Q: What sequence folds into this?
């Protein structure tokens, strides 16, 4: 059994939520859109000594100007080599700045969001009802039109 098949056998039968409807909002064309990053890489500011724990559905707000972040992902299966080589693998804020300079997107949000991705199903309701809407409010208050999800 490979590591991948072992993990799949342990989580493959976890039920997933079903929603009656999916809200949709039309975004402006990308050349005028304000874009934020939402990553599940478990990033924290470099001075933050706390680490993510299993069932921690909270999030971290990352200022767009701060590239001094650390990976606080608790999963031993998470491959950190990409992040070590280039922060943009999990947090592509430099690529967004390049897209602004090229006129491909309108602007980069002042703040981005990081959750810890390896969560147990017991955390889902917390994220759905509490931290998810709170993170959305941070981005909405920043005038974000489009969110780039970097699932890790």
A:
């Amino acid at each position: 059994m490979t590591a991948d098949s072992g993990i799949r056998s342990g989580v493959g039968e976890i039920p997933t939520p079903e929603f009656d409807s999916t809200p949709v909002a039309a975004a402006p064309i990308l050349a005028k859109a304000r874009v934020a990053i939402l990553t599940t890489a478990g990033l924290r500011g470099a001075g933050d000594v706390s680490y993510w724990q299993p069932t921690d559905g909270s999030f971290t707000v990352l200022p767009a100007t701060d590239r001094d972040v650390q990976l606080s992902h608790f999963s031993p299966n998470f491959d950190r080599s990409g992040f070590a080589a280039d922060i943009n693998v999990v947090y592509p804020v430099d690529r967004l700045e390049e897209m602004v300079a090229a006129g491909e997107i309108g602007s980069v949000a002042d703040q981005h969001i990081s959750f810890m991705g390896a969560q147990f199903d017991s955390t889902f309701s917390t994220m759905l009802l509490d931290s998810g809407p709170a993170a959305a409010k941070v981005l909405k208050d920043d005038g974000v039109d489009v969110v780039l999800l970097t699932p890790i």
About this structure: The longest strand covers residues 34-39. Residues 47 and 69 are 8 Å apart (CA to CA). The chain has a mean pLDDT of 85. Helices lie at 3-11, 81-85, 93-101, 124-141.
